[in-house]
Design brief:
330 residues; mainly alpha; Farnesyl Diphosphate Synthase; two-stranded antiparallel ribbon; 75% helix
Length: 330
Amino acid sequence: MIPSDKVMKSLKVIKEPIAPELKSFEKHFRDSMQSSVPLLDKITYYIVRRKGKQVRPMFVFLCAKILGNINDSTFNAASFIEILHTASLVHDDVVDDSFTRRGFFSVNALWKNKIAVLVGDYLLSKGMLLAVEKKEFDLLGIVSNAIKALAEGELLQVEKARRLDIEESVYFDIIRQKTASLIAAACSAGAASVSNDPEIIESMRLFGEKIGIAFQIRDDLFDLGSDDVGKPRGIDIKEKKMTLPLIHALKKADRSERRRIINIVKRKSDQPAKVKEVIDFVNDSDGIAYAKEAMYQYRKEAFEILHQFPDSEARQALEDLVVFVTDRSR
């Protein structure tokens, strides 16, 4: 297995090279979310107050800073990416029937599904209008492709979940579209805000895609739990989602064992004891170790792309951010 031999720094330390820009971005993002409709304004205020770690805007700003000077286009890119990410979370909570988000009630829990879907649609339109009004047409193309990939990835996962026998290649297609496409868009949008070199922009896009895949594998590991990723939860098993550790474990199993585990996931995933049985099966079959190896391999390939660019404080911070998202404990 490729070792995790890098020290994980705190987000506060990682943010230092772009701290002034991130502080300015907060107002830029709040302003871009505003609406003249009181209900919408109330909901978007609720969302903004409960924002996450702002990892995606960090990718935008750091990729831009590696290549040049952060400018108005960079701020527009970061806002558009964060609006898209927020919209996707609002829609995901409806699709997944989830009533919490980052420890708080989700939009659909407080205002019901109909309003949540409309809020997500509103945010998507705000992002599009931001790009059009600012004449950021390259950015519009980058993010529109990400939106398309997100929808296709979600639908592909729904289609394949019915059979519960997907191959690794299909799994990677799903997460490349569902998760990696947005981080890839953040990196390429940051690059495009300061450079018009298509090769550089594509390199940053590919860097982001590899990190996005590694990021999703880390989430797979959270759900199954191990000594270094937290308490087992089994949420993906309950939702009948096939993740890399489980796919690998099933591939190694004989026919009867494979049939037994798939039957549990299909019909008994609401029983905690049965969920634990699947988690134990994955651990005993080296599914965790296999997924970690894949995650670190994607991270290694991302670093190889990143190291093609000149060394700088921003490049080091971006490398540290990559370590953070792949070695984080929650």
